[in-house]
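Write out this protein's structure.
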Amino acid sequence: MLKYPCLVLDHDDTVVQSEKNIGYPFFCYILDQFRPGQTITLEQFAQDCYELGFAEMCRSRWQFTPKELEDEYHGWMDYVMTHIPDPFPGIGSVIRRQKAEGGMICVVSHSSVVNITRDYETHFGVQPDVIYGWDYPEELRKPNPFPLLDIMEKYHFTPDQMIVVDDMKLAWNMAHPLGVQVAFAGWGRREFPALAKEMQALCDYSFDTPEALGRFLFEEE
């Protein structure tokens, strides 16, 4: 019997390695297009996404207009369809075992369904059971609790039957008020020790590798 029948996974920098090699370079390109001469470091990009979330970062720090946000999204979709991020070593085994043992994989992410499904098929040969991504209206995306509430209502899970695995604080903001436990995907924040320290303090569990997460989920330690 699975410890958590419902495994709720983030995508970027939890399952796939995307921030440094895809998200940040594309945002630098967009920033140069929309705000010529302005720049952002990888560290600041990570910090702003951590504190604010991507859309709010664009609005509050860079004053993107609704039209610019829409244009950024369309450009991003074109970009990610030709740039496939690598998975973190070991995460595929966790995903496949959760599915093989009859558990659910629910993805709650700020990526879109099309690239999440592409990444799962490319790297793991399986698909999530349900995805709550950027395709939803902004007011229903993480950190709004809607994804978890919807999962609980549709699939009849209680909070203690679920665990969220994520590298960013928005997941804790989403899950904590509902009593759903959060595991910090520490392997996705190795280059940012200050962020990692805060997440380790916030979250119910913290894991340095996907293998350590797997041992915990499947009670191998």
